[in-house]
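Pilot study result, target chain (376 residues):
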Amino acid sequence: MTFRFIHSSDLHIGRRFANIPEPPDGNIRGRLMEARHGSIGRLAMAARDRGAKHVLLAGDTFDTATPSTPVIRQALAAMADAPDVTWWLLPGNHDNLRDAEPLWEAICRDAPENVMALTDTQPHDLGEQATLLPCPIRFRSGASDPSEPLVTMASDEGRMRVGLAHGGVTDFTESGDAIAPDRDRSARLDYLALGDWHGRMAVSDRVHYSGTSEQDRFKHGRRGVCLCVELDGRGATPRVDEIETGAFLWTEVELPLHPRQDAAAALARVLPPAGRRDIMMRVMATGWAGLPDRADLERAAHRCAPDFAHFELVTDTLGTHYESADLDEIDRAGALRLAANMLKDDAESEALSQENREVAADAVARLYAYVREASE
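Predicted structure:
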């Protein structure tokens, strides 16, 4: 008989998103926080749709070691609202056992019957077919492979072995705290559910990162997913399906420009045509643009920004092409032209740092935009 479960991780419930600017008339941080809480319900729906009785959360269910009492209680209540699903919560590095001791005490005390806190390396039965082998994180950073206990963890003969751990398959240092990529073989696992990496990644047929169910950065360029895992028996290759669970799409696109191009039209072509309210958008302008082009681009970005949950135009790597006619629009002589010339020289000076050149170029562009706006 097929054994089926949901694998997710890194819900980071309670994250405040302080790095996202809050517009004066918006509430994007609140919406993002609510989406993270709402991922619990979407995971429950995925489990019901696929006939899965268990949801395995591979660490960092909470964003900090000290989430507020309402954050904890409301998360547990949302899990209780799916009584047909058993939730298995593994401590990760953000909510590790040492720093978050009061958190796990509260979970153990207040959790409903269908929520299991995995605070030790004790095997647990997943029904009659499989055994769950958890590796909770005790400290935020350690000096060993957090999945190493799996090698010696026992299970009854014939039962499928499902490992649950949190950490990277490599840390690019000599600290030794990376998870061995062949841990499935050394620990005789049928499946190893990993957390920590926020993007979806298959390490091998039996070792998978689900990624976060609700994305929180531009790095991965897609909505969050969970994994539906099916095991047909001891030694069988797992079937792993992705199920989209993310409410918000975090996406970053490149906008290559050249002088005298219709920058506003170029921007419009790279933007998604629909669903903008739930899109976190970052546009990376590259190449070269004249002063009129930059002004048109900034104006177009300002017009479309309210359509999106968040909109960000990045011009750090966009070079400015200066023409005398454009500078004449600022001023043909006098103080403004003198200031424009000095800023232009600074923007092109190899004696200044890249940062100072960018500041000068931005100042010229702003001066041009202000003067043109005033004349219209």
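One observation from the pilot: The mean pLDDT is 93. A full batch analysis is planned for the follow-on phase.
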